[in-house]
Amino acid sequence: MMRAMSDAAALPDGGTVHPMTRWGDPVMHRPARPVTEFDDTLRSLAADMVATMYAAEGVGLAACQIGVDLAIFVFDCADEDGVEHQGLVCNPVLDLPEGKDRRLDDSEEGCLSYPGAFVPCARPDYARVTGLGLDGSPVEYAGTGMLARCLQHETDHTNGTVFGDRLSTRLRKKLRKQMEAEAEIYPDGWPAGD
Ligand code: ZN
């Protein structure tokens, strides 16, 4: 399948890989501050987020996951047709289908900040997100499949919500057991370091 061409919102490169912040750290569980300065500091943060996302083999990453309290996320994720989409959104706002257009997909979901664990999580099978790009101009992304899940998961992070908050007690326990069983693979500092 053909890979989608990168558009003008190509992800910034040259960043530094940071350790992944984990669930339980306060920065993960409160709404992030909106981005107001579209400057070199923001570009540098975005580049670090991209580097950390790829180092961790993730499909999306929000600033709180490298310990930064700002409402911005990056993603590089396929939709249900296997087309890869890359993007960056500051101050994201989700728009989800309602009524008869709303269909739930309960595919498995995981989070780089609770690594090694995956359980089903019901979410709408389509999502649209609007916000601002690195230069402060409006951006919009929409899609299906894993991309729809990713856009929702990452916007949740900017609102201080982790997907564990959306699970039943039973599934949360299952998720914790998996995470604990995989903990040696993801030591403190992962994915930074040697
Ligand atoms: Zn996550």
Description:
- 22% of the residues lie in helices and 23% in strands.
- It is built from three helices and nine strands; from the N terminus they run αβββββββββαα.
- The longest helix is centred in the first third of the chain and has 16 residues, at 40-55.
- The N and C termini lie far apart (35 Å).
- The protein binds zinc ion (ZN).
- Zinc ion (ZN) binds next to α2.
Overall tally of structural domains: 1
Strand content: 15-25%
What would CATH call the class?
A: Alpha Beta
Q: Pairing-aware structural class of the strands and helices?
A: alpha+beta
Give the names of the bound compounds. Answer: zinc ion
Q: CATH fold name, please? A: Peptide Deformylase
Count every helix, treating DSSP H or I runs of 4 or more residues as helices: 3
Tell me the Rg in angstroms: 16 Å
Low-confidence stretches: 1-8
Task: Give the topology.
Blueprint lengths: L39 H16 L4 E3 L9 E7 L5 E12 L8 E2 L2 E2 L9 E2 L2 E2 L1 E7 L5 E7 H14 L10 H13 L13
Antiparallel strand pairs: 1-2, 2-3, 3-8, 4-7, 5-6, 8-9
The site of zinc ion (ZN) has 5 residues, from helix 2.
Using brief descriptors, characterize the structure shown.
194 residues, alpha+beta, Peptide Deformylase, 5-stranded antiparallel sheet, two-stranded antiparallel sheet, binds zinc ion
